[in-house]
Specification:
Monomer. By secondary structure, this protein is α+β, with helices and mostly antiparallel strands. The protein contains 18 helices and 28 strands. The longest helix is centred in the last third of the chain and has 17 residues. Bound molecules: 6-O-phosphono-alpha-D-glucopyranose and zinc ion (ZN). Zinc ion binds next to loops. 6-O-phosphono-alpha-D-glucopyranose (G6P) binds next to loops.
């Protein structure tokens, strides 16, 4: 018999860590699976991969094998997800393995629902040791599509690479899974279920998160805007997790009309959609905002609620501009009333934010792609507002990017600008705010070209080829009409803990501030996705109204020819342009 009784384990008087009592723990033999290495944010694979016997269980056990026992024994963990297919079964597996490893209590979102920012908020508020997020973010869901799992630490921030590397190491040698012999927990009702010394509490997914947001923003100010007859708002939850948050927050608390929420019910397959808020995948919303007499404000969030897209009437706010505008307008947000500690962006994100930091004399940081790199800066008290070109924006109220936070930040700015406007007076619009920002700071034209699901070999060779060019390049080299300032493969030294990460993206920076950056995505689940980021600074206001694709055309052509992208990938056109 391979079962062990935890209660019969000898207790050591020298340690306060107790084994779970009153539940039977089974030890199940297992064999390693290859390829359980986590990417930019967690482990993401096809559902069919995760549903292979013990595949998920192995990873969860490997995680417990990687954490110091004091980080989970008798501890409190949080569990939730974006509502995608397989979450319900996965939740039961995770609960049982957590119990089997001596976790004291798990807080689970009702129906297994908790957005990524909500998990971060709950971990912090409830002083949990950490939490699991069952999500493959914006990747499609359903039996044929993706599933994923992320682990966040006690500050609410994604586990650092030192931990995820350890987990991966342990997946390669795993031989045993410790699982509690307890029945499935009913996740449909809020309340506590006890199994001996272990308990599961099903929580409302919205309340802790909403409570936090109410301390960040002036809800009365936003409510004033949303109840104006001359301001029309629309939020697209893309059939994903923010559907669970949109009505309680925008409608019940802030007075938006019920029909301002579209696709507001989370579905296991996101309604066959691709829940990624950008110009391609949130096309329905874009069409509504660009239609004649469309609404004044539109926003969308992704599968797990951490990304956002902001639109005005016939106007798209690039994520790079969005974070810069928020940083320049923090007076509209009570959370920042005692000042802003610092600003940060990921390396490929445009330099619009840099100009705000300079003008406001704020500390500024450039980190690699991946929200986890902001966490240390926040914990050290050096960072308040940050963002990424990949539709992530947020602040140090939690340790994840936050889609609904970004929407509320923008609503606050618009509300603040219009608070003295009488009925019938023309309101200052989203595009007015952005254009005024450009007039003050200059415009950083920005675009990203994605080539999804390329052959890995060709994509890797292209990056190697670019690294080779970098190694031979020198300041002053001519690229058409552009003069090279420097080229490198981005290396980051964390100013807080001194850790170094290298090979974070090949960049060519030109003397006029223009940049071309190449990276392979760390979040895909099949093949390789090549990302090319193109940026050009334009101080001249008379040129600010040009379409980004037109303004950037020469630089885009240069980016494609310098990298021999078409030869290496065989692709004539990108799959997505943002
Ligand atoms: C996730 C991370 C982000 C990151 C994004 C893009 O959403 O949370 O921080 O910017 O992935 O990653 P990728 O490697 O696909 O460009
Ligand atoms: Zn996401």
């Amino acid at each position: 018999d391979s079962t062990i009784r935890a209660t019969s384990a000898p207790s050591s008087p020298s340690t306060a860590i107790a084994e779970p009592e009153g539940i039977k723990i089974n030890s199940i033999p297992t064999k390693p699976f290859e390829g359980q290495k986590t990417g930019t944010s967690g482990l993401r694979k096809k559902v069919k991969v995760f549903t292979q016997e013990n595949y998920l269980a192995n990873w969860i056990q490997a995680l417990f094998n990687s954490l110091p026992p004091e980080d989970y024994k008798n501890g409190l963990l949080v569990l939730g997800g974006d509502g995608r297919y397989f979450n319900r079964e996965a939740a039961q597996i995770i609960i049982k393995i957590a119990a089997g490893n001596g976790v004291g209590k798990i807080l689970v979102g009702k129906e297994g629902i908790l957005s990524t920012p909500a998990v971060s908020a709950v971990i912090r508020k409830q002083k949990a040791n950490g939490g699991f997020i069952m999500s493959a973010s914006h990747n499609p869901g359903g039996p044929e599509y993706d599933w994923g799992i992320k682990f966040n630490y006690s500050s609410g921030q994604p586990a650092p690479e030192s931990i995820t590397d350890k987990i991966y190491g342990n997946t390669l040698s795993i031989s045993e899974i410790k699982i509690a012999d307890v029945p499935d927990v009913d996740l449909s009702k809020v309340g506590v279920t006890k199994f001996g010394s272990f308990s599961v509490e099903v929580i409302d997914p919205v309340s802790d998160y909403l409570e936090l947001l109410e301390t960040v923003f002036d809800f009365q100010l936003i409510k004033g805007l949303l109840s104006r007859p001359d301001f029309r708002f629309i939020f697209d939850a893309m059939h994903a997790v923010t559907g669970a948050y949109a009505k309680p927050i925008f409608v019940d608390k802030l007075g938006a009309s019920l029909d301002s929420i579209s696709n507001g019910i989370p579905l296991e397959d996101f309604g066959h959609g691709h829940p990624d808020p950008n110009l391609t995948y949130a096309k329905d919303l874009v069409n509504i905002l660009y239609a004649e007499n469309g609404p004044d404000f539109g926003a969308a969030s992704d599968g797990d609620g951490d990304r956002n897209m902001i639109l005005g009437r016939s106007f798209f706010v690039t994520p790079s501009d969005s974070v810069a505008v928020i940083a320049a307008n923090t007076e509209a947000i009570p959370y920042f009333k005692n000042g802003v500690k610092g600003l940060a962006r990921s390396m490929p994100t445009s330099g619009a934010l840099d100009r705000v930091a300079e003008k406001l004399s704020l500390p500024f940081f450039e980190v690699p792609t991946g929200w986890k790199f902001f966490g240390n800066l926040m914990d050290a008290g050096n960072l308040s507002v940050c963002g990424e070109e990949s539709f992530g924006t947020g602040s140090d109220h939690i340790r994840e990017k936050d889609g609904i936070w970004a929407v509320l930040a923008w609503l606050s700015i618009i509300a603040h600008r219009n608070k003295d406007k009488k009925p019938g007076e023309k309101l200052i619009s989203v595009s007015d705010v952005v254009k005024e920002h450009w007039a003050t700071y200059g415009r950083n034209f920005f675009s990203r070209y994605d080539y999804e699901e390329c052959e890995s070999e060709g994509a890797n060779k292209m990056i190697e080829y670019l690294r080779d060019i970098v190694s031979k390049s020198k300041a002053g080299d001519k690229y058409g009409s552009y003069v090279l300032q420097f080229a490198d493969d981005f290396t980051y030294t964390d100013p807080v803990d001194g850790s170094v990460v290298s090979k974070q993206g090949v960049r060519f920076v030109f003397t006029d501030g223009s940049r071309i950056i190449y990276r392979l995505s760390g979040t895909g689940s099949a093949g390789a996705t090549v990302r090319v980021y193109i940026e050009q600074f334009e101080p001249d206001v008379s040129k600010h109204d040009v379409e980004a694709q037109i303004a950037l055309k020469p630089l885009i052509d240069l980016a494609i020819s310098v990298s021999k992208l078409k030869d290496f990938t065989g692709r004539e056109q990108p799959t997505v342009i943002t």
